[in-house]
Write a structure and sequence with these properties.
alpha/beta, Rossmann fold, SIR2/SIRT2 'Small Domain', three-stranded antiparallel sheet, 10 helices, 9 strands, globular, binds 2'-O-acetyl adenosine-5-diphosphoribose
């Protein structure tokens, strides 16, 4: 059985990382449009770099939770028939032990040199303007897909969704495209696991005869363990 799991910020919430749109709609006190667009970076690169530096540093203070571990168990059962596609830029799936994880919105622990177009593993801050290990210029930006930029590896995702028997969406509000459209691209049954119905919940309910939205009182670790 081929399964594609899409994850969003909600899966990392129990680990202590903020979601984007819960509470007052701010992300760690910032309007996402002021820190997650190329225009914001052009206007105030230091602010944007500091923001992502803080998010990168916060990763060392959090751990994967039961939901990340549950997906590792699913991969142990399904092997290459499971693909986790995540909108998250944290590394909690990998730290839990998932092998087949695709980050469509980039990763905090990667720096992208806009001068030589190389990407480098990165754990430290970028705000001080470090040199690119490849070309030596100080042109490193967070390797994050901002609003208005093209998500990574959509060919791979589209193919996996076309071939899957089951598409599961976990912890995403379903308002950011293209991920919000995956429910339509998926060929198999669709299932949403979330605290509340997402913006696209009715598409899960309408598009398939199988399961639709399932609200999770405690979180998906328990659900996937059912
Ligand atoms: P959102 O913050 O929009 O949605 C988080 C979802 O997680 C909501 O549907 C919540 O109900 C759910 N949730 C919150 N706390 C939870 C918990 N403890 N357990 C389970 N679920 C919980 O985050 P995303 O949908 O991931 O893009 O946001 C999508 C994209 O918007 C992000 O990747 C980011 C952002 O702008 C970029 O930065 C390009």
């Amino acid at each position: 059985m081929k399964v594609v799991v899409l994850t969003g910020a909600g899966i990392s919430a129990e680990s202590g990382l903020s979601t984007f749109r819960d509470a007052d709609g701010l992300w760690e006190g910032h309007d996402p449009m002021q820190v997650a667009t190329p225009e914001a970076y052009a206007d105030d690169p230091a602010l944007v770099q500091r923001f992502y530096d803080e998010r990168r540093a916060a990763l060392s203070r959090v751990q994967p939770n039961a939901a990340h571990h549950a997906l590792v168990r699913l991969e142990e059962a399904l092997g290459e028939d499971l693909l986790v596609v995540t909108q998250n830029v944290d590394d909690l799936h990998e730290r839990a032990g998932s092998q087949r994880v695709h980050h469509i919105h980039g990763r905090l622990q990667s720096a992208w040199c806009t001068a030589c177009d190389e990407r480098h593993a990165w754990d430290g801050p970028l705000a001080p303007g470090p040199s690119c290990p490849g070309c030596g210029t100080a042109s490193l930006r967070p390797d994050i897909v901002w609003f208005g930029e093209i998500p990574y590896g959509m060919d791979l995702v589209e193919e996996a969704l076309w071939e899957c028997d089951l598409f599961v969406s976990i912890g995403t509000s379903g308002v950011v495209y293209p991920a919000a459209a995956f429910v339509h691209w998926a060929r198999g049954d669709t299932l949403e696991l979330n605290l509340e119905p997402s913006a696209g919940a009715s598409d899960f309910a309408r598009s398939r005869q199988g399961p639709a939205t399932r609200l999770v009182p405690d979180w998906v670790g328990e659900v996937l363990g059912d």
